[in-house]
């Protein structure tokens, strides 16, 4: 879903999206503790406003004593100032700590929600239907969630403080400037609360100009997250496949791709810094000019003897707090733009997951069910591509425990799609797949997934490492031909890069022997082995897992000799049909 720059910055859609993200935490079991932390943070935020008010009064007394040359009163005011300032610093420090504690709780809850939506029921596979709308979901969960929570708390609490300061200091500013007169061309005018009207006019003008200048930042920040993540992903993909790239002598092509992605980063960054330059010039100019306004307006009253020096300083502080409250939007605009982009990116990810779930709920799809029957069955199975193109038609088959089945078929006939359908990650089509209730399945692709961690964790994945004791793990590694790794169970390594393709496949077979699944599906899981090693592997499977049903994609004729039955995919007029023999 492309970013719609025409949306209002704070329109109804934004608040609906904000509520959708916010309620994840605020209706969770941890919401009560979060509410206590939030209440404490709000109380401390109000305390800082009160501290600022007290400091302004003390500074008035301090400068009045300084002007009147009263040493005793001056020293007394300094002592009170130091006490209040110490309390102010303590409250401010505790406020930051409590806000951080709430931030990490909120982030933990929201991250868990996104991971649950993304990593459950193979949503991460099905969401590829909407990959144009959901670039880099991992980056959205890792970074956008973090920035959303931090900005939500920071902006809301600072806005609260700005509003309270505005209300608190407005009455003070009104009273301090209530008796001033304004001289224009020899005429004297009395405007009640003159400084309040000046602050209000200045603030509204600054808000209007800032919004007109800074609005494109929302779109720029949205795209910045995408291009940065695309560039990082390109580098990470190269790192994960350095050997394959080197063998293909593809370094130049990879560098060219990385530089193309980085050009997108550079172009976006230039847009960002130009707009930030304009906005910073505006906000800094507004801030500097605004600091002179109270002195310029108060000067005639001071020179006429209507104000003391302490009162002028108090007016300056009060004006700063009031105008700060009115120009909060100006000062926070860049963070608001980033936050707005975070909200958009997180909500579009949720919308893509919702859309995928809705499509599969409403449309015809393959049903994968757990049945009490002890056999695995394919019942009138029809597999298609997402656009409806037929892949496999009329697939009816039955497999008993202990059966050894070789799956044959020409390239493009749908062998892997069939295994993906049995695994439950390809639901396009219709028909039913029945898997015995309570049985365990294990799928081994040509390159088994090996997590970064200890060898023991790679061996037991996805089960905990405690599933394998030392003796059992070493014995299995020796049996499959990995005796050289038997003493390295607790070494942590990037095993997918450290081991050869054949060693990775042997580790996958060792995983199957250790876990003893009821149904084992091998997608060219021995293609990197020599013939003696392949014979040894299948002999081990037959010896150690006699009751396990095994299906092997057989792209090599030698694989068929290790199986008693065949499933053969043959292309017909409309699609591929499955014939069991």
Give a verbal description of the structure.
By secondary structure, this protein is an alpha/beta fold. It folds into two domains: 12-361, ABC transporter transmembrane region fold; 367-580, P-loop containing nucleotide triphosphate hydrolases (Rossmann fold), CATH 3.40.50. It is 63% helix and 13% strand. The protein is built from 19 helices and 14 strands. The protein has helices at residues 12-26, 31-68, 71-118, 123-126, 137-176, 194-214, 216-240, 242-247, 251-303, 309-326, 328-331, 333-362, 415-423, 455-460, 470-480, 495-498, 501-515, 531-544, 557-560; strands at residues 181-184, 187-190, 367-371, 376-384, 390-399, 404-408, 429-436, 441-444, 453-454, 492-493, 519-522, 549-553, 565-571, 576-580. The strands form three sheets. It has a ten-stranded mixed beta sheet with strand order 3-7-4-5-14-13-6-12-11-8, sandwiched between helices. A two-stranded antiparallel ribbon has the order 1-2. α7 (216-240) runs antiparallel to α9 (251-303) and α7 (216-240) packs across α12 (333-362). The radius of gyration is 34 Å and the shape is elongated.
């Amino acid at each position: 879903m492309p970013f719609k720059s025409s949306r209002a910055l704070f329109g109804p859609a934004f608040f609906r999206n904000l509520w959708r993200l916010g309620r994840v935490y605020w209706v969770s079991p941890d919401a009560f503790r979060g509410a206590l932390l939030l209440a404490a943070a709000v109380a401390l935020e109000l305390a800082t406003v009160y501290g600022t008010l007290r400091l302004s009064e003390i500074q008035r007394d301090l400068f009045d004593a300084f002007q009147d040359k009263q040493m005793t009163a001056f020293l007394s005011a300094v002592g009170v100032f130091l006490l209040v300032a110490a309390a102010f610093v303590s409250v401010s420090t505790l406020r930051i700590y409590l806000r951080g504690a709430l931030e990490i709780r909120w982030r933990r809850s929201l991250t868990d929600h996104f991971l649950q939506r993304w990593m459950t029921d193979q949503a991460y596979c099905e969401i590829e239907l909407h990959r144009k709308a959901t670039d880099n979901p991992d980056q959205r969960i890792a970074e956008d969630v973090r920035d959303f929570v931090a900005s939500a708390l920071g902006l809301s609490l600072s806005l609260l403080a700005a509003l309270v300061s505005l209300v608190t200091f407005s009455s003070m500013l009104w009273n301090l400037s209530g008796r001033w007169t304004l001289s224009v061309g020899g005429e004297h005018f009395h405007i009640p609360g003159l400084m309040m009207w000046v602050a209000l006019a200045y603030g509204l003008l600054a808000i209007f100009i800032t919004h007109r200048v800074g609005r494109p930042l929302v779109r720029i920040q949205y795209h910045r997250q995408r291009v940065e993540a695309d560039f990082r992903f390109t580098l990470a993909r190269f790192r994960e496949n350095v050997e394959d790239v080197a063998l293909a002598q593809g370094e130049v092509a990879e560098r060219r791709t990385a530089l193309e992605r980085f050009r997108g980063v550079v172009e976006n960054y230039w847009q960002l810094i130009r707009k930030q330059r304009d906005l910073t010039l505006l906000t800094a100019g507004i801030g500097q000019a605004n600091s002179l306004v109270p002195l310029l307006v108060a000067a005639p009253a001071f020179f006429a003897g209507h104000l003391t020096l302490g009162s002028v300083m108090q007016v300056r502080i009060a004006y700063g707090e009031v105008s700060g409250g009115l120009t909060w939007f100006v000062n926070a605009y860049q963070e608001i733009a980033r936050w707005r982009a975070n909200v958009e990116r997180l909500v579009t990810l949720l919308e893509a997951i919702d859309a995928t779930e809705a499509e599969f709920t409403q449309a015809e799809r393959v049903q994968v069910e757990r049945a009490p029957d002890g056999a695995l069955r394919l019942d009138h199975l029809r597999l298609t591509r997402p656009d409806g193109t037929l892949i496999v038609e009329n697939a009816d088959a039955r497999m008993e425990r202990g059966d050894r089945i070789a799956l044959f078929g020409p390239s493009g006939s749908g062998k892997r799609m069939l295994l993906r359908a049995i695994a439950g990650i390809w639901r396009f089509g219709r028909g039913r797949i029945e898997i015995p209730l309570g049985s365990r399945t294990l799928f081994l692709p040509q390159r088994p997934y090996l997590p970064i961690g200890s060898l023991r964790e790679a061996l037991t994945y996805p089960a905990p490492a405690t599933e394998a004791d030392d003796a059992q793990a070493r014995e299995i590694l020796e049996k499959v031909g990995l005796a050289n790794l038997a003493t390295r169970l607790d070494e942590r390594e990037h095993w997918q890069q450290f081991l050869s393709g054949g060693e990775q496949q042997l580790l996958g077979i060792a995983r199957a022997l250790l876990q003893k699944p009821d149904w084992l599906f091998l997608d060219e899981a021995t293609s990197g082995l020599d013939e003696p090693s392949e014979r040894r592997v299948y002999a081990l499977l037959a010896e150690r897992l006699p009751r396990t049903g095994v299906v092997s994609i057989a792209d090599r004729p030698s694989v068929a000799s290790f199986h008693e039955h065949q499933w053969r995919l043959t292309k017909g007029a409309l699609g591929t049909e499955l014939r069991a023999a």
